[in-house]
User: Fold this.
Amino acid sequence: MSKKVLVTGGLGYIGSHTVVELLDSGYTPIVLDNLSTSDLEVMDRIEHISGQRPIFEEVNMCDAVALRKVFEKHPDLSGVIHFAAYLLVDESVHQPLKYYQNNLVSTMNLLELMSEFKVKSMVFSSSCTVYGIPDTLPVNEAESVKEAESPYGNTKRIGEEIIRDATRSEELKTISLRYFNPIGAHHSGILGEFQEGVPHHLVPYITETAIGKRSGLKVFGGDYDTRDGTCIRDYIHVVDIAKAHISALEVATEMEPGVNDIINLGSGEGSTVLEMIHAFQNATGINIPHEVVARRPGDVPAVYADISKAKKVLNWEPVHSLEEMLASAWKFEQTLNK
Assistant:
């Protein structure tokens, strides 16, 4: 069987780390990206780490004709890992149509071509945002999907439903991975979370403050019903997430046609924003100036994962500690600064 895998959004944060792990595992990744939120220089970093330069296709997935050419060029694909999406919660609140157009049309185009070209296996990058404000913690996969708190979260919910229905009708084999908050960077220090302008995620904001790019950190909301008033999230190392995608692809390949599964990926533990700041300070000895400001639209108070299904079905569990995650993020920030 071919080990050629299409990785959409393959130059993004999680996508690029997954490409590295695919190369390390003997796969041939076909990296597809439209470069709207990523940079072609990431290919150089992947090559530096892996000693191999994967095939790259610059394509807007909403362009069905252009996407078809990729499938025609690579007719022996064994599977797809689908990351490509806009992913900023706050931006999606202010530009919902941009998110619905990009995230859903691209997914439908992909599924249609997979069916036509007989590519049966897919792993979909979903999100814990589909749980909204959960009824119970930790959250397992049986938790009901709530009304989304943001258009971004809604595109993940609808995307899961589209994939589920297409899987049944086209006899595909698919797994949607609902992961929580990936952080950290590759141990080399040269591949991590690139963000232009003001960071949208907590850990890059912490590291940019630590290195002096930012004068201080804004903590969005200090009056949530949590142990210190700030939001609780489940943080997991990006390399652990990347390895889980490979396990999921291998499991999906062996599933019966028409089967769609959903699996959480996280650490199984929750940390508040203030706890993350203090953990970074303890790990590095660097003080992080911060202030609590108003809540941010679309945020939920607390969410962290029950990962027992991932352990059982994927034979996977995270191996990096919170300190290792933050240390790797700090190493990457220092490399960027050089």
Q: What stands out?
A: The first strand starts at residue 4 and ends at 8. The two ends are 43 Å apart (CA to CA). The mean pLDDT is 94. The first helix runs from residue 13 to 24.
